[in-house]
Every structure is written in structure tokens, then in C-alpha cells.
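Materials and Methods. Structural model of Peptidase S8/S53 domain-containing protein. The 812-residue sequence of Peptidase S8/S53 domain-containing protein from Micromonospora qiuiae was retrieved and submitted for structure prediction as follows.
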Amino acid sequence: MRADDSTPGNAGSPWAVAAVVLVGCWAVAITVSVQGGGWLVDQVLLIGGLDRLVPLWPGLCLLTVLLIGTATLPLALVPRAPAIRAIGRAWLVGTLALGALGLLRAIPPVHHEAYLTALAATAALLALIVRWLTRRVGTTGDSGRDPVVSGSPNPPQVVTLLAAAAGLALLLPWVWIGALGGLLETIIAGLAAAALGALAGALLDARFWGHFAAGEPPRPARLVLVGGLVAGVVLLLIGAGTGQSGTQLPLLVTLPPAGFALAALHASDRRRAQDHRRSRFAGRTPATWLVGLGVFGPLAFTDPEEISLLLVTSRDVPFWVAVAAGAGLVVAVLLAIAYGLWLARPSARPPRRAVAAATAVALLVSVAGVAITAGQPGLHGEQLFVVLREQADLGGLPGGTGKAGRDARAEQVYQRLVATAERTQADLRRELRRLRLGHTPYYLVNAIEVDGGPVVRAWLASRPEVDRVLVSQRLRPLPAPAGTAGGNAPAPTSPPWNITLIGADRVWSELDVTGAGVTVGSSDSGVDARHPALAEGFRGGDDSWFDPWNGTRTPTDHSGHGTHTAGSAVGRGGIGVAPAADWVGCVNLDRNLGNPAFYLDCLQFMLAPFPPGGDPFTDGRPARAPEILTNSWGCPPLEGCDPRVLRPAVDALEAAGILVVAAAGNTGPFCGSVQDPPAPYPDVLTVGAVDAQRRVTQFSSRGPATAGVAKPDLMAPGADVLSAMPGGGYARLDGTSMATPQVAGVVALIWSANPDLVGDLGRTRQILRSTATPVQAGQRGDNCGGEENVVGAGLVDAYAAVKAALPAPSVR
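The predicted structure was written out as C-alpha cells:
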């Protein structure tokens, strides 16, 4: 062995250097592509309504370890130069750490506290293992003696303070843009971030940096450039394993450039170590602080379930996460340049402790100031949705149809539901008040939404009156409003194709029926009541609008979804099926994601509307309930719903004589894709979508639903449907969401033509099914167990249905 081969700073042969470059590029390419691809697969499954693929991330982690590990292992063992072996070992251990951390993504995202706890424990264990292995290897080194390790002419606190300042700078964009979750979630996120920082410190300790800093005279430029590149790959691997699917994506951008800032910090340590213990402590501390604070931002200030393509259509969480990642990248690059120029110049004087302390304090004050002023202060954790065992007995209700009969039944249903909830919830609500746990009771489903985490959940689940406890997802606040959607399509000059396809225009012109005297309830993103197609149809009064999201007192809509669906049901100007019907509205998914509580808020309001600030238990007015509910939404497990959670609500509305119309979903052409409540329930009139050629659209969900129930029930136009948008505009949209309100409008026409049918849900369904017309099921060979699971009874025919519903002329 030549003497120079044992020199720690020797880079080895050009072939070895080339191998390092190729392996580093390979590791970066594999990591970025696998992490991005895995997230996209998660999103496709989510948008497609398919079950979460639990083996996805374990499989991707194993693939990553195999692809990168087989390339880094030879570097860790074969080259004669210790520096090359050190690089290979750092990358190999980083890859193994990525594999171990990535396996934790098998934990469902809804159990975020459990995931963060596992992440903290795993990262801490890995840090201990790496430090133990480093000490074992360090007893002999690569050449039979300790490698040369750079010491620090400054107290370790100087490097620590500068590293903490850098970490706070990386945290700053997340404090501005993000919002904290619950208290326990935030604490565990802090512990996980500290453990990940410790893992980075164990991998990037003084011994690691010593391989790039050795030599006389010292060459800090090589340490910054070469050491920074190598450290950047290590930080990329750590970032890729951090957080649930989606959280790791911004870390792939912000952490790697921080490797150069770490290298610059170590470049200021130019004197050989006088005390190895002290030098190792100083070597670990900068990475621990910088990485720990850097990963705390996305771990604590974002909810991984909100980094979703479901929210990408507006300036919602994905947009702001991208902004934070871009800002973090700029900060990391500026840190690398500033620290490099300040600390790594050959003539640079070591910074004083006062300067380092002032830098750290200035960044800390900035973070606190941004959090209080521009940020979203406070805690915004998830709630728990507690379903009680006893649900109201709604048997033996008074009969009768027509408006009076329907109102009498609705009043009885309301009284029984409230009485059952008051009686069975009394003890639990008393305990919640004693423990000062915020809570909201419900009666339409006998349930309570409770503030709390896993500990409270375990306590609630153990109580005898509780059936089950679900997680009620809550969206965290945004740094700025998401903006209001608009439409740029021209207003129609004649009824659009969907109106003529189902014959609604013939009902108006030939039968003189337009929906007068009937009220349709819209639970959606809201309604723009100032739109010229909707302004006249708003029922008005103090009990026709409810916004549990934002507390608005007048009908508004930001996303446009609710305005579009309401327009298709009751809009004037040719876009609505029942243009003379009235409407009332409620906001249950302001930002395209809801939860069981918000959905129930609106369904309760529809059964018994109440004035602003009123108590649903005492101020409900069942006589003011709309006759028909249009629901272009579904509650998937992502939002906290299980298949049964809204069933008591639908049963109660059915008993009250209120017809619930719901979208089948847009997760076709897969069979069995009518999954998310309330669409699968037998008592719901579930609607699929066809195009202008009367063909079932590819996206329209297929049955059978749970327990083999045939779904959908009916089809309606759902492709390229023209309707209203906020601000007075119009737009063409696709989806079963667009088809659903048209069926609600047809029912409004039926009940307007024959008021005696109001509340007679069985007879109304029979008319709709018997008058439906055939549609083309498409070219799929699989008919999902029967054509009824693809097309239901067929395409709704407004003209035929209204004619069939007209009362027979009296004989004199």
C-alpha cells in the first residue's frame, strides 16, 4: 500500500472519483423518481376511489434499498482511498435509513400521531445504531489508526448557534404558510424532528467531515464543494424517508442544498482536535440542529392528507406547500452561499460567539414574529366523531302524504331524534364538560364531535354508551383565501343539450310545470345567491342558509361546485330543470374536503332549519324543511367516514318524507366503485352520468354497492354540462355531481305537478324508474354483475315522469 493511499484526504484514482459521481447521480435519480412516483400512485388511488395500497411504500422502500444499496456497497468496501469508502458508507447507511423510515408509511395517514411516534422511535434507534457503529469503526479506522479529524478553535456553541440559525431560516417559510395540528401531534412532531436531526448528526459527524478537511494547508473550498455534495445526497435520503406520503416531497428540495451550509460550518474548524470527544460533539451538533429544525416545518405545519391532488384545483394546501418548498430552496441556497463566503474563505476569521448568538436570536425573533402576525397561530388538530350505540326508534310514525302529511312526519322524526340524543348523551356530555373538552352534539345521527387525540379516543371507546370513535378530519387554515372560481362560457340562449335530452324543456312548454311550490336543499360548497340564474329562487328568511365552515350569513360560494349544481337543479335562464322551484343551501365542503361532522351539520339543517346562531336541538323548524335534497358529494375514509356512519341520518330523512338524491361518484369504470356514503344506501336515489350520446361515461361509478345493493338507481347527463358559476358566469363541467341535481330537479317537477306526491317517496321512485329510457352501457365486457349496476333503471325522462305523475282528471 502506498503511503498516500492511507491519507484520509486522498480522493483515490480518477476511476474511483467517476464511480462516486455516477453512484451519487444514480442515488438522487432513484430517490426522487420513486418518492414522486409513489405519491402519484397514492393520489391516483385516492381520486379513483380505490382502497389504499398498504404494501405500496414497503415495496418501494425495498426497491430503493436494492437499487441504491447495490451501487453504494462496492464504494463502501472496495476502494483503497478512505474518503471514497466514507462516502460509500454514508450513502449506504442513509439508504438503509430511508428504507427503514419509509416502511412506517404502511401506517394509515388517519393515525398521524401513531405514525409520528413510530417515526421518532425509529429515527432515534437508527441514530444510536449509527453512532455505535461509528465508534466501533473508529477504534481502528480504515488504516489501522484514527482518521484525522478536524477540531474547532471556537467553542462548540458557536457552530451550534450558527446551525440553529440556519435551521430557523429553513423553518421560516413553514411558519408563515402552514398551521400546527393538535397539541400532542405537534409535540410528537418535534420529537420526531429531533430524532431525525440526531440521525443526520450521527451520519455527518466530525469523522465524516474529516475526510474532506484533512491536508496541509487546509483546503476549505474542497470541504464545502465536495463535502457539501456528498452531504446533500445523505440529506436527500433522510428527507425521502421523513413524513407520510406527500410530506417528504418539499424536503427533497430544501434539505440537499443545506449540505453546503453544513460543510461551510465545518470548514471553520481548521485546527486539529485536541480532544476527540469534544470534536465529535461539535461535529454532530450542527447537522442535528439544522436538519431537526428543517424537517420540523413540513412535519408539524402540514397535514399529509391535505397535500393532495383533490385540492390542487385552487390555491389550497398543495399550492402553498409548493410555495414553501420554493422559498425553502431559495433560503437553503442563500445559506450555502452566505456561510461559504463567511466561514470557508482561507482568510476568514472565526466568528465570535456574540455574532453567532445575535444571528440565532434574530432568526428566532423572526420566526416568532411571523408566527404571530402573518402565520396561522393556534392549534388546528383533528376532532373525534363519537357514534353512540342507541339510535332513535322511528317506527310507528303518522302516515299521510302531501305537504301537510310530510310536515307532520318531519316534526315527529325531529322530536324523537332530539329526545333520544338528549337522554343518551347526558352522562357523556357532563363528563366532557368536566374535563373541559370541547364538543358538539348531534341528533340526526346520535353522535358527538369531540376535541381530542389518541388518549381521549381510547377513553371514549371504552365507555359503554359508545359504539365507535372515528377521526373527524379538519382542514388547517390557509395563509390567504383560496380565491373564487369563475366561468368564462357564454350564457345559454336556448336550453342546453342536457335539458333537452331529458325533456325538461317540454315539461315547461307543453305541461306548464316549472317546479313552483317545491324547495330543493343543496348541501355543497355553497351557492352564489347573487347569480342572475339563482337570485330569484332563494327562499329567503332567516332559516334558508347555514355555513358551519365560515359562519357566513348570506349564501356564498368560492369553489363554484355548489353554484354549478344548484344551477342545474333550479337555475333560471334555461340551465335548471325546475327553474321555478326555490332553494336553500348549506356549506359542507368549502375546500373540496369535508368530514362526518360537517356533512351531518348540513343534513340536520335540512331536516329542521334554524336561524343564525340557533341551537339545532331547540330551534329547529321541521315545517321549513326542503322537500328534496341534492347531494353531489361522498364521504370517503380519508375524511373520517366509515360505510355506516351516515346511515341513521338517511334513514331519518326517509322517515320524514324528504327525498335524498346523491351522486354515485366519479370512480368508474371500476365495478363496485359506488362506495362512499351516502350513495351506497338503499334509501338514497343514487345517480350516475351519461354523455350527449346517451352513453355511460367512463368516470361514472358502478355497482354493486355494499351487501350487493344494485346501484346506481338512475342516470342523468353528466358530461360537458353548462351551468352557473360564482360571479355571474357559466362553465361546462363533468361528473356525477352534475347529473345528480338534474334528477332532484325532475322530482321537483313531479311534486310541483302533483303536490299529493310530496313525501310519497316509494311512489315517486316507482314513477322515475318506470319512465326511464335506455342508455348505452359502454363497451366494457364486464357488466358488473348485471346491467343495473352500470345504468340503473336508465336515463331519467322528465317529460314522461311528470306526465305519469299528473293526477287523473276528475269525472263529473
